[in-house]
Amino acid sequence: MSAIRSTNSLPPPSAGLSRGLTLLLATSAGVGVASLYYSQPMLGVLGEDTGASTQALGLVPTLTQLGYALGMLFTAPLGDRHDRRHLILWKVAMLVASLLAAAWAPSVGLLLAASLAMGVAASLAQDIVPAAATLAPEARRGQVVGTVMTGLLLGILLSRVVSGFTAEHFGWRAMFLAAALATALLGAALWRSLPHFKPTTELAYGALLGSLLTLWRQHPALRRAMTAQSLLGLGFSAVWSTLAIWLHGAPFHLGAGAAGAFGLAGAAGAVAAPVFGRLADRHGSHAITLLGAGIAAVSFAAMPLALWLPPELRMVWLAATVLGFDLGFQSALVAHQALIYSIDPGARSRLNAMLFVSMFSAMALGAALASLLFAEWGWVAVSALATGAALLAALVRWLPVRSSAPQTA
């Protein structure tokens, strides 16, 4: 127990959480995490420009997501030990630098290195979410987290729309330059508006990382949330990391702009995040996470049917299935976050880091597996991978959890 003992010096529940600051936090989380996904709809254009193979192109999103997982594992827990404001601002500076490096990368090798650094810096989004949860009053924590997650999820989804359009009309380097400028502007706003946060633990860095294992062992509901959300993340990433390549070829022959536009369908699901946060506040997370996994599984399984539909119906069918799996993924994620933030208020940065490290590690694996499966067996194999992962997530949520301590499963 001593390994996870924390102080009681939390900020007042609603300190500094104005509507404007909530909007700024949501926007910053979205712009930060968007850096992970700019490359996905640009892969076809990037491949033509650099001559890189499909396997090499698959490493761009894979390394970005791996960097994100590493950033959360080794830096996000510092939000419990130090002022989150300082941590967020340092990562903003690093993200601007890595985006500029990607824009000016003369080779695929240097682009891959910039992608890894970009992922580490983009983990600032997962410093912002527990910051909002700390500032929020207890009765509205799920709703506030849902609002910030709406910004984050819209960043994930709309990044594909913006990058697809920009790459098609101005080139892929222009996208990274524009992202660096937007990040720098938001960094200035955060420097002016973000309050300071009192540390919630005095653990040294090594003990802080070691406490992650203690938290994992102590809380069966945390392990369950990490497993289920990771499986959903694997399927989510498998589909998004290969969708643009699939749409670029036969029978669709769509450019980067059209591929990125499918992010609009997914964005429709993101606006429901505060609704699912309120439901989690009122009714708990179990039913919502189980429902989300089921919706995602059905949507993943239905995507390949577009190949057998008349051409005029294919895009409508694909948009509906993208909306479905994004809605399922996002509803489960918001409910899982509301769950873990209630486990230990003094360890929110660490708990959030554990959830997202596991999820993004699985997303990196999903992107890598999907690129291999797509190269060998095509889109049906990618869909089968995503569907199987979502069904396993539903099974994890369905099975009862054995608890040795009070839990909110």
Explain this structure to me?
Helix 8 (141-170) packs antiparallel against helix 15 (311-341). The protein is globular. The chain has 17 helices and no strands. 77% of the residues lie in helices and 0% in strands. With 409 residues, it is an all-alpha fold.
Percent strand equals under 5%
Provide the gyration radius in Å.
Answer: 20 Å
Number of strands: 0
Given helix and strand content, the structural type is: mainly alpha
Discrete helix count: 17
Q: Sheet bearing the most strands, described?
A: none
Instruction: Please estimate the helix content.
Output: over 70%
Output mean pLDDT.
84
Oligomer: single chain
Anisotropy-based shape:
globular
Order of helices and strands: HHHHHHHHHHHHHHHHH
Low-confidence stretches: 1-16, 403-408
Distance between the termini: 21 Å
Please provide a brief summary of the model.
The chain has 409 residues and is an all-alpha fold. 77% of the residues lie in helices and 0% in strands.
Write the layout of secondary structure elements.
Elements: H1 19-34, H2 43-50, H3 54-74, H4 78-81, H5 84-103, H6 108-122, H7 125-135, H8 141-170, H9 172-193, H10 205-218, H11 220-248, H12 256-270, H13 273-283, H14 286-302, H15 311-341, H16 348-377, H17 379-398
